[in-house]
Design the sequence.
């Protein structure tokens, strides 16, 4: 970004937006937008509240369980699709549909199926993230040079050895890209899921805050979620960077 | 120098089977229903010698090599290794790949030891063996490097060391130097010949370079294209004790290159 002919680093542009938020907030133009400073103040108070702790823990638990299922399931589906043409023609279409479908509309159905509890939240996380992981894994598997498989075969690798010692690692850069996208979608999924269910965890807090016009608290909670998503995705991004060196040298 | 025609009848090859470490009988290969890659190929590969499969592109030389390796299934015909019929890869054969096929996430040491890792050899044993062969191919000091940190020639040395480390009797080399630049290639050919004289391996070597074939081979099998058949077998009798540069200027060497070129040029259009 450039301003008056000066190049401004991306981090500073964030500061400008925050400043703008502060000014608009102080002008009291809209009651839903309190000044940034009071939101931050509220954030620190919120971080110490026991009801936030329980909500955050419940949310993290659902998130973690959902992600583990999505990662294992997604990689498995991606590998089956990548290694078996028939499986690909059967599964491929559905995975593509689910990866691009507006899944939020399914959450009410999930609530009917799994009730108003953690299970629904976990299933939502899985549904939001598994497809993109499967698609990226598939792309990674298709990318593997055939001579790497031949190499494994010719040196006597068993099916499992070929998978665990050659193919998985060869597809890892794409798998990690998928996991990162999946994580971001899962954060979306968990927020939407909890908002819709809104009787558990953070969703309940969100509901309480917005029903009582506590917009400082509301935005503070939103900020926490944003930071959480950012930290997670940069963590996976860092892992991705670590295997990047061989992504280009596989051909 | 002698030129012989292809031996065809299985009964002939049976009597020779004691000196042939690998034999293929009546190998025919179709890709799909219309691409006829190989047409009843009968061939013996003498123990302890270097046999080159040479021919224009489309003659099925790589297909034949991969069938011997057990990586491809022939449409019909049999492959015998040390007198026993084989239908898949086995520990008595090791493959060197055109594109190296190294694990980019593993060090040179682990790459060279990979064949031994797959057969569950203890770590200390396989690393000791790997270090020995890394040294043999002239890469000592590079054990902890990754493939992307090496030049093309060095990567293929890793591929060669990996094939040597599993201690197979037969090395199958699929255009091993085609992805390597010319200077490196010459040096590599010389080193390979030296190494093979020490290691006593039987080698089946695929190349499209006539000079390379004549320089490295005891026996050259010329294949004709579409469908691949044996055109002729040539045994260049070159004394390899001479200095490499003298060999490349040797009259016999140049004559054989010329003869092969005359045989092959009719397939080019």
Sequence:
């Amino acid at each position: 970004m450039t301003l008056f002919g000066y190049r401004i680093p991306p981090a500073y542009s964030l500061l400008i937006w925050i400043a703008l938020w502060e000014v608009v907030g102080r002008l009291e133009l809209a009651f839903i937008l309190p000044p940034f400073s009071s939101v931050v103040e509220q954030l620190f108070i919120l971080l110490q509240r026991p009801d936030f702790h329980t909500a955050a823990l419940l949310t993290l638990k659902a998130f973690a369980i959902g992600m583990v299922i999505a990662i294992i399931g997604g990689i498995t589906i991606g590998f089956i699709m990548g290694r078996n043409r028939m499986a690909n023609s059967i599964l491929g279409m559905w995975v593509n549909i689910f990866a691009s479908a507006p899944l939020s509309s399914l959450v009410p159905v999930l609530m009917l199926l799994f009730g108003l509890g953690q299970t629904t939240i976990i299933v939502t996380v899985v549904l939001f993230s598994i497809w993109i992981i499967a698609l990226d894994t598939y792309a990674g598997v298709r990318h593997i040079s055939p001579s790497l498989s031949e190499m494994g075969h010719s040196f006597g690798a068993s099916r499992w050895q070929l998978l665990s010692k050659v193919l998985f690692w060869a597809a890892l850069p794409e798998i990690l890209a998928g996991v990162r996208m999946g994580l971001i979608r899962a954060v979306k999924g968990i927020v939407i899921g909890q908002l819709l269910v809104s009787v558990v965890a953070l969703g309940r807090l969100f509901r309480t805050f917005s029903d009582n016009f506590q917009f400082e608290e509301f935005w503070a909670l939103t900020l926490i979620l944003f930071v959480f998503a950012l930290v997670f995705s940069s963590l996976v991004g860092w892992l991705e960077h670590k295997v990047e060196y061989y992504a280009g040298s596989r051909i | 120098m002698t030129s012989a025609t292809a031996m065809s009848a299985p009964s002939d090859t049976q009597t020779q089977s004691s000196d042939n470490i690998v034999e293929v009988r009546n190998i025919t290969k179709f890709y799909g229903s219309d691409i006829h890659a190989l047409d009843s190929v009968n061939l013996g590969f003498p123990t302890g010698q270097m046999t080159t499969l040479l021919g224009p592109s489309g003659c099925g030389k790589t297909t034949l090599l991969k069938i011997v390796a057990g990586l491809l299934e022939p449409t019909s015909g049999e492959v015998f290794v040390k007198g026993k019929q084989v239908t898949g890869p086995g520990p008595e054969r090791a493959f060197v790949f055109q594109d190296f096929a190294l694990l980019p996430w593993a060090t040179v040491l682990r790459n060279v030891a990979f064949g031994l890792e797959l057969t569950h050899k203890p770590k200390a044993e396989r690393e000791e063996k790997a270090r020995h062969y890394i040294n043999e191919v002239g890469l000592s000091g590079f054990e902890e490097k990754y493939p992307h940190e090496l030049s093309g020639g060095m990567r293929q040395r890793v591929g060669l060391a990996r094939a040597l480390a599993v201690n197979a009797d037969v090395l199958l080399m699929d255009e091993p130097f085609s992805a390597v630049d010319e200077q490196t290639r010459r040096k590599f050919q010389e080193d390979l010949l030296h190494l093979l004289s020490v290691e006593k391996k039987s080698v089946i070597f695929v190349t499209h370079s006539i000079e390379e074939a004549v320089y490295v081979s005891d026996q050259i099998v010329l294949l004709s294209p579409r469908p691949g058949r044996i055109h002729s077998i040539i045994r260049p009798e070159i004394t390899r004790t001479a200095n490499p540069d003298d060999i490349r200027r040797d009259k016999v060497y140049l004559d054989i290159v010329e003869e092969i070129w005359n045989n092959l040029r009719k397939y080019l259009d």
